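Ex. 9. Protein: 1-phosphatidylinositol-3-phosphate 5-kinase.
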Amino acid sequence: MLLTATSTNALSFHKTRPASLQKTPSRLRRSGSEPDLIRRVHFAVDEEETSNETRPRFHSRASFVRDLPPLFQDGNYQLSTACANAMDLPDIAAAHARNRQSMAEDATTFVLDRLVSAMERSNISQLSIADQCAFVDVLLSLSTETAVSVEDGVAGCRIKCFPGGAPTDSFLVPGVLLKKRTARKSMRNTVDKPRVLVIASALDYHKDKESFSPLEIVAGLETEYMRIAAEKIKRLRPDVVVFERHVHRVAEECLAMDDIVVIKNIKDEDLRRIARVTRAAILTTVDHVDKMDADTILGTCKQFRVWTPNPPETTQKKVSKKKCVVFETDDLVTGATICLRGAKTKAELSELREILLQIIHLAYHLRLQRAIWSAWGIAPIKGASASSNGPSPFDSMYLKLRENSLSMRAALKLEQLKCISCKFVERKAQAVSVQRRRSSGSLEFEKPTQPCSCPPDIRTPQWPFQLVVSTCWSRLDANIPSVAEWNVLQFYNTDSDCSLGQFLTKYCFDTAAAVYKNAFRTHQLSFTHDMARVHIRVLSTQTQPTKKKGVGEVLKDMVNFARSVVQTSITPITWIAHGASSSPVYTEMTHDMLSYSFGKFLEDLIYMKPLPFDSVYPELEDAVADQLCVRYFACKDVVVAVSTERIEPVLHVALRPSLWESNQTTASLTNELFELADEVKALTMQKIDDSLAAHTLLQQTMQLKTPPKSIEELNRLRGTVRFWFVSFTEKLRSQPPQDIFAKHALFREIYDHAAHMCMELRDSSTQSTFKLSNDSDHPTSTALPAGWMLQLPDLPNESQQPSHATLLEELSSAPKTLSSVDTTATAAEYVSKIRTGEIQREKEFDVQLHGAIAFPDVVDVTSDHVFGSSSLTQSDSQQSWNRTWVAGSEISKIKSSTTSHLLELPKSILSWHPSLPKGVDEVVMLVNSSQPTSVVAYSLCSVAYHTQLTHWFSQENRNLEVVNEATRNNMLAVLRSDRRSNFEHFFADESEFQSLTKFSCKSFYATQFHALRQLVDYDERRYVESLSTCETYQSGGGKSGAGFMKTKDERFLTKVVSSNQLHVFLSLIPKYFEYLAKTIEDGTPTMLSKIVGVYRITIDDMSMCLLVMENLVYNRKVDALFDLKGKMEGRTADHGTVLWDRNFVKMFQGIPLALQESAMVHLKTAMMNDTTFLAAVDVVDYSMLVGYDKRKQEVVACIIDYIVKYDFMKRLEHHGKRLLQEEGEITVLNPKQYTKRFQTAMTKYFTPVPSRYSAIVPRHDDDSS
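Predicted structure tokens for 1-phosphatidylinositol-3-phosphate 5-kinase:
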């Protein structure tokens, strides 16, 4: 598609813009023209290496050789030691000729196909089908003969149209034909082998205007002067004299008298063509012409003649008798003129003339292409020259668009926008065989039945005449970023393209300017287009002068013939190497090779099909001409290496996190609950087993015949626990939780059951009723001392029984050093000590009694005072005893009111504080002190927060509802509101199972952030669900040392900031809301990593400030993550998950990261919008977080850390460093300077990649934007 100037958004991101296309017809390049292809040289300069100097400092090339690939470090440059000239080897020379002939046959078919396609698209409907078919044969014959014979192709060819006659009357003149006549009719009409004199001036008399002389005298002087000038010309004895301008009448007469033909008023371009054809010198004046050597300045040709074309058949009375002069030569090398006839009107011939020019240009280009391709040993494949289905954007053979390339994507997109009529015609044309025969009977010119209704901006040109490339000079050490600039290469054009030979001579070889020689010592030149990048490096073989070589050194140089060939070659030579192999031959570059368009050369390398090499190269038997090939050009002691690299440009730039997806599956949620239920079951069963063991021990100790009732109760609890576990797990399997809220509800259910079991277990373990045995006088070995039991009935009667207060006082005054018998292990140890005599029975009986071993029937101890449980009961029988045994009720713990071990729950339950009140609509949200965001999540679900939020909206007369198209403006107004809405929520958790824990959460600008989350499609329920769990996140990306937390689902990042930083951000938050509201309302892109919540939380005595922001890489797998600030000094990260600027530059070899044009425009627009806003609010030290995913060809980017203002301390630091450092070394910049540096750096980090369908805009060299 012809690139036309469009919106400046395409490339205004660059300092330099692509050159505009000329609206005037392009001038075709001759072999002698040398345009300035590379208009600027942008060198990458290290900030650390430059101080006050603006000029780059070049280093010795030796320091960069180690960074070159192995292919470029070989001293022989992949040219074998015993290399030979390809023309000196008959087999290889024959193979080259054979391949050229095969390519020529393919070219004929290729040109015929393009010619017929051009005829089908042309507006020559007035011609009959027979004439159109006849023109196909004529145009093909004329274009092929001209392109093969004329040295400069279209540049040396002109086409003249003469209405009338038949298509077969068209003919080719080997020379120059001009629509001019001789100065006088009496002059000769035919001259064989004429002597031609060419004068680029007029032959006239210029009188002095300041002198006053009589008219007769002036006329006499004029006549005499003309006679003298004519006599000077006569002395050279020319047959034909060609003047660029007017010839005086007297001079004409004098020359005509000697039978000299005069032709005057010739254009400069035609004058040069005549001089080229006749090989005559162009004189600027006739002065001193008589003193010149005639053989030096005169030219000749085969014949000069005057030709009068036959006029067309017309009804007009007056017939044109315009004549033409012809300078005919023996061959077509120097130039040719095609006389086109066969149409009645000049408009039809003009249309055919444009087609013929294009075909000649195409055939000439294919001639040069096969010259250089055959020299590299490339063998064509039958049918490889044919283009793919649909219109091809190339006018070269053996090229194709690669799958999923930028050009292919653009072509498919444009194809979808075409009208039905054009699609029908194209499908009709695709059905016809690509190989068209010359016979006129086989050609059918299908015309669309309906007019084209395609949008004008998608119409592709008939011929692709140009290539847009991104040019970049990059350092070989890849430590410094480089600037990429777009260049438009219009093939074979004098202003925007050059030949391959001119490029090598002007920029690479020893004849190059000093600036380019110095550049290639430390840099390489890269041209990027679509999905390929061409690297050009200059490898100099210059050596220091040494002493005279000995015999051994001379013999060594003779063996190493390749180095000698490279260093002594005067004519440029070329060879190709594949992989690590070396080429056995080199080829001297012919005129056709050196004349090949440099733009076409780049196009071939970028789009070439994988063609094989000829079989005469055994070392390249299985190789193909692809990106593994390195093409070498050498002249004297300079070698130029050209390699091709396949790249994968970024197709998409994401400025927001991906769609919300749940990372927690149902299985993961269920597994956690299964484990928790199993843990509760195991702990409860362990408590029951411990209690049963203790009661069994007491039964054996007391020699009881009847087991206590509590044992039966404990057995019942065991069955209850098992039944609950089976029921709960079955419920989980049949109805697994779908989200965090359902999981927390089931978690709360597990807690409620565990708490209920603890209560029942405590109640069943606090009472045991048993009777004494009749044979208590003879206790067994396991029984307690009989004296203990005999003393109990001697207690006073009911009226003398001690009161509760007295008993509690005695219990409290018990010695703390006594052993406890509260647990099973303690009771067993106590009995063991009794047996061994370590404890005296009678002395310690009373104390142990008060240690809650046994109480008489008449004693009623309330556990609320002693054990923190329900009151004790007594038996109706006076011979029975009410024995209470509470696990964990040690005497030392009674005073501190610590809970019993029967009231202990797993820490995995208590750490989530499940006893907190439920939220709105009975929503269960748990809080974990080790996960601060859970405090925020609980607060957002609470009734208190919801009440405050509803109250604020009611005061503002707005509805609290989900955002849709109808309520969008309502939420935008809330977001822009400057009324503060800081909601603070206090809550605490205290129960029988754990101590008091206090919480608080203050939500700053709660209503505005609520509106923001609604406007950016963050569901409030999922937002709370994400904040319910978090973990510490070690990014290692910055120097601020701020703590980061990441939600378990990785949806959000939480940054812990100081109170001062929070105050700074709150001071600019109204403008932050206004800017986001504007971007949302207008739909403008933004890459700010949105802060969607600001909170201050407290957990007991700990307080922290949290900023909740989007996580850029949520649900994405990036290969590398970079934190870019736009400077190189001190920006190298040796470890960590986040890398810095110099790591970014090093990873991409100093060349800007290639992006698709639409992706670059999206990134650039968002970056410019955001940085302009941040500069307006005096924010500095922000950076761009970039994630690169090579597999998806995607970049995710956002601006982070925009909470630092350029305050008084920053100003003081900036002015202080200005006194100690140079301006370029100061790292603390004001907002405008920081923004400028940031934007400039991004132009070096990212660049758009052009394709065949890229749009270009005018470039202004004085534009510094």
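Check your answer against this statement. The chain is about 35% helix and 15% strand.
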